[in-house]
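Provenance

Sequences were taken from public entries as deposited. Structures were produced by running a predictor on each sequence independently, with no templates supplied. The record for Transcription initiation protein from Chitinophaga oryzae is shown for reference.
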Amino acid sequence: MQEFLVIIRGGKDPGLGSPQEMQEHLQHWQRWLGELMASGNYVAGQNLEPQGLTVLSNATVTDRPLAEGKELVAGYLVLRADSAAAAAELAKGCPGLPFGCTLEIRGIRQLH
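Predicted structure for Transcription initiation protein:
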């Protein structure tokens, strides 16, 4: 099995709904991640803060605004799968998809 990075971009913030909607969304995430863990496909993942720093090619560090909306990287997952297509199938269950997020799936090269 190979590891794949799933980059979660954009989407509407589900936290803007009612407390019940927010709870349902959180439970959906917990169920989906639980299934990935139980199947052995989940390796790691985290949400990301919307703010950050950028290091430019001339070694300048700036706090310029990061991408917004659909380009904002909201989080990531590392999944194990037999192929990129298999990782994409696993990613189709992502609870953020109904909120307009997109998922980019990239194979992780192993350094030898």
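DSSP finds two helices and six strands in the chain.
The mean pLDDT is 87.
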